Amino acid sequence: MQLSTAELQKKIQDIKKRIDVTVVAHFYQRDEVFEMGDITGDSLELAKKTRDDDAEFVVFCGVGFMGESVKVLSPNKRVVMPKLACCSMAKMIDGLYYDESIKTLEKAGIEADDILPITYINSSAEVKAKVGKMGGLVCTSSNAKAIITDALKQGKKILFVPDRCLGQNIANQMGLNSCVIGDGSDPKEADIICYDGFCSVHQLFSLDDIEFYRKKYPGIDIIVHPECDPAICDAADFVGSTSQIIKYIKELPEDKKVAVGTEFNLVNRLREKNTYVLSSTKPECPTMNETTLQDLYETLKAIEDGEPIGEIFLDEDTKKWASIALERMMAL
Ligand code: 13P
Ligand code: SF4
After folding, report:
1. Single pTM value for the model
2. Which of 2, 200, 231, 252 has a C-alpha 20 to 30 A away from that of 169?
């Protein structure tokens, strides 16, 4: 017999009391899963708060790179994912594509020693390790500007992977030159050279959507995530990480209208405060939505039965170098 949401949530709460586990949930999770999170937040907060937590098991309701980051930062924790959910942007670059990008820049006359790689946290541990080995580091959407500002002090070219939009948005904010590998321009002219990756969900927001809301509700605030296209970010009133978006909206007067360009589940939870989804389509992240309450229950049950399924394992070299890249970010 199918259990109701309330029944499953009760079972989950009961198991959580019996085993040494912390459930972590990103804002893009389905509401009923998100409600089960002991730790919630944006990517940076999840990485930090989970590292400071001391439960033996972490059940991570999010996408693969997030669970991997916990494993890298806390190798003694046992990190389990209820679903094999991988961020499609993180999938756009692997170790081989990363090496190819370095070769492309070398062919264009930039020596590897003059490149400082920065990877958005939305990347595999393999890519983070490659970046760590080259002296580079990780950033998230909430600290990208601070990380790039500091990195520029080394006087090198920044190779930013995998999100071309985040890289270009930060370059625009800082008045720097940027390019995207393969766009026909000379990378030697750019301060920030971006890999050609993107988030398919955040590509759904358009200038037409912004125009629609500005016309319909004069005075409305347009708020977007920095994974949106630079043209969208330029036209917005506020650009921020998921946590920064929530904070910004919570501090607005009740009657202020806002249209938000980020994943549907997050925006939908804020609806009662005059909040609209900035899209003519439903911007759902398919893999964030993969994890169901049933998956979470079964994952916890398997841990209780001593047979965890979906545990993350990484080889020692990857853990070591990805950890160096992540810790460089944490140190800043
Ligand atoms: P945040 O770090 O802002 O939570 O973003 C994660 C993400 O995947 C956005 O698409
Ligand atoms: Fe990845 Fe985009 Fe989903 Fe975020 S919304 S997890 S960047 S696919």
Report:
1. 0.96
2. 252
